[in-house]
TrEMBL record:
Gene3D superfamilies attached to this UniProt entry: 3.30.390.30, FAD/NAD(P)-binding domain (3.50.50.60)
Transmembrane segments: 449-472
Species whose genome carries this gene: Vigna angularis var. angularis
Keyword Transmembrane helix set for record: yes
Pfam families: MDHAR3-like_C, Pyr_redox_2
Record keyword Heme present: no
Name this protein carries in UniProt: monodehydroascorbate reductase (NADH)
Cofactor: FAD
Ranges where the FAD/NAD(P)-binding domain occurs: 7-321
């Protein structure tokens, strides 16, 4: 048994949904595109699982969060795929791939062949067993990666009203689940080995802000230690969490968020891997010219950083999906993927966004005892990253733009003094020719201009980059 398609997307998550929409926008013909997913539902906005899905009232449920509602685009229901002649093969895993023969073998025994394959297999949650602790199968131990996990988590939450939960891990999943558990009136203790939460992204100062807020909502933190074992009752339920520091916490439920691993297994030995993912070039094409990779599983060149990165965030899944379709269907009109990393989270009433890279010196701004503050990262004389909590739409757009522009920064004290105003003003600067120096001090005197056009952005970016390069070289800053 076999079928052949021009385009096959392997994986039916965020990236697959956004790629499908882009294929349709670019005029894919009926019967040309197939999506194969081991999940039983059409692509959906995965971030909803730790947010709206876990709310005790008016919780988000499918079909409300099918892609691409997260980017204010069309909501692609199963009917939409049908109407556009896209074959959705759901609840079906791919168990082997042969990139030389251009075929995939599914768990139902079907061979699906392709002309172009887009690998969008995302990642899986790391299990405790991979760290030498057993007990993942207990009915009150939860992970959160897909809709089945989310349904299970909701059931466990409902089974222990006002109970005690331990959240293992202080990253994205840990923080978002802890907030959702508190909203469900569960008492939460977070346990993680690092000195502070979100250790890969936050500085100690930023993390302190969130930890203090969480404490004000009743969350306890046990830091600098890890889980060593569970105690179970006679039914196999976990009753206590034993930590390596010798302490024990009684529990009604456990949520584990200790990281993810990209799903590359089908392609090991067939495609070049890097940074744990499938290595792709600027066209998102792997070491086999018929195979492309997008989303969490792809390790792609981040031009601005001059290195290959693999990101685990929804925005890069959406944007890489859009780009890969253009790269495949309109290769002559499509340039290299030029992406600035963007991460966000919404927890309780808090909301933050981060753009770029968190390397170099950190310059804080705003009121860290209030509801809005942020930080810039300056490396080798250039602004390379920006973080903002509690901003409005224009302010978030401003930090996004300023990070993309990477202006030269001479004076960190002045940058700190101007704070968010710096990003807002730089991002509103009109196109200029010839290039002018963007100094923090100049910006204080200028009236903001509100017209912003994409072309202007490109021109400014080029101007500032040219200036930054020239100025940086002159000053021997890098
Ligand atoms: C609970 C949660 C909350 C999140 N919140 C945020 C957030 O607030 N902000 C943010 O930036 N990012 C967030 N993320 C990360 C974001 O969801 C991911 O970066 C994004 O989903 C990646 O998209 P993807 O398409 O690459 O992978 P996925 O969305 O994971 O999709 C991969 C798909 O491939 C399928 N698959 C894998 N292997 C096979 C196979 N062999 N055969 C068939 N199908 C297969 C999987 O079942 C899945 O359907 C969150 C993630 C989770 C889990």
């Amino acid at each position: 048994m076999g079928r052949a398609f021009v385009y096959v997307i392997l994986g039916g998550g965020v990236a697959a949904g956004y790629a499908a929409l882009e294929f349709v926008k670019k005029g894919v013909s009926h019967g040309e595109l197939c999506i194969i997913s081991d999940e039983p539902v059409a692509p959906y906005e995965r971030p909803a699982l730790s947010k709206g899905f876990l709310l005790p009232e008016a919780a988000a449920r499918l079909p409300s969060f099918h892609t691409c509602v997260g980017a204010n685009e069309e909501r692609l229901t199963p009917k939409w795929y049908k109407e556009h002649g896209i074959e959705l093969v759901l609840g079906t895993g791919v168990k082997s791939a042969d990139v030389k023969r251009k075929t995939l073998l599914t768990t139902t025994g079907e061979t699906i062949s392709y002309k172009f394959l887009i690998v969008a297999t995302g990642a899986r949650a790391l299990k405790l067993e991979e760290f030498g602790v057993s007990g993942s199968d207990a009915e009150n131990v939860c992970y959160l990666r897909d809709i089945a996990d989310a349904n299970r988590l909701v059931n466990v939450i409902q089974s222990c009203p006002e109970g005690n939960a331990v959240v293992i891990g202080g990253g994205y999943i840990g923080m978002e689940c802890a907030a959702s558990l508190v909203i469900n009136k569960i008492n939460v203790t977070m346990v993680f080995p690092e000195e502070h939460c979100m250790a890969r992204l936050f500085t100690t100062k930023i993390a302190n802000y969130y930890e203090e807020y969480y404490k004000s909502r009743g969350v306890n933190f046990v830091k600098g230690t890890v889980l060593s074992s569970f105690d179970f009752d006679s039914t196999g339920k976990v009753t206590a969490v034993n930590l390596r520091d010798g302490s024990t916490l009684s529990v009604d439920m456990v949520v584990v968020g200790i990281g993810i691993r990209p799903n590359t297994g089908l392609f090991e030995g067939q495609l070049t891997l890097e940074k744990g993912g499938i290595k792709v070039n600027g066209m998102l094409q792997s070491s086999n010219s018929s195979v492309y990779a997008i989303g969490d599983v792809a390790a792609f060149p981040v031009k601005a950083f001059g290195e290959t990165r693999r990101l685990e965030h929804v925005d890069s899944a959406r944007k890489s999906a859009k780009h890969v379709v253009a790269a495949i269907m309109e290769p002559d009109k499509t340039g290299e993927f030029d992406y600035i990393p963007f991460f966000y989270s919404r927890i309780f009433t808090l909301s933050w966004q981060f753009y770029g890279d968190n390397i170099g010196e950190v310059v804080y701004f705003g009121d860290m005892s209030g509801s809005a503050f942020g930080a810039y990262w300056v490396s080798k004389g250039q602004l390379v990253g920006a973080f903002l909590e509690g901003g409005n739409k224009e302010e978030y757009e401003a930090i996004a733009k300023v990070t993309r522009l990477r202006p030269a920064i001479e004076d960190l004290t002045e940058l700190e003094r101007q704070g968010l105003r710096y990003a807002v003003t730089v991002s509103q600067k009109p196109a200029v020719s010839p290039p002018v120096e963007v100094r923090a001090s100049d910006l204080l005197l200028e009236k903001p201009l509100y017209a912003w056009h994409a072309t202007a952005g490109v021109i400014i970016a080029a101007s500032i980059a040219a200036f930054a390069y020239f100025y940086g070289k002159k000053r021997r800053r890098w």
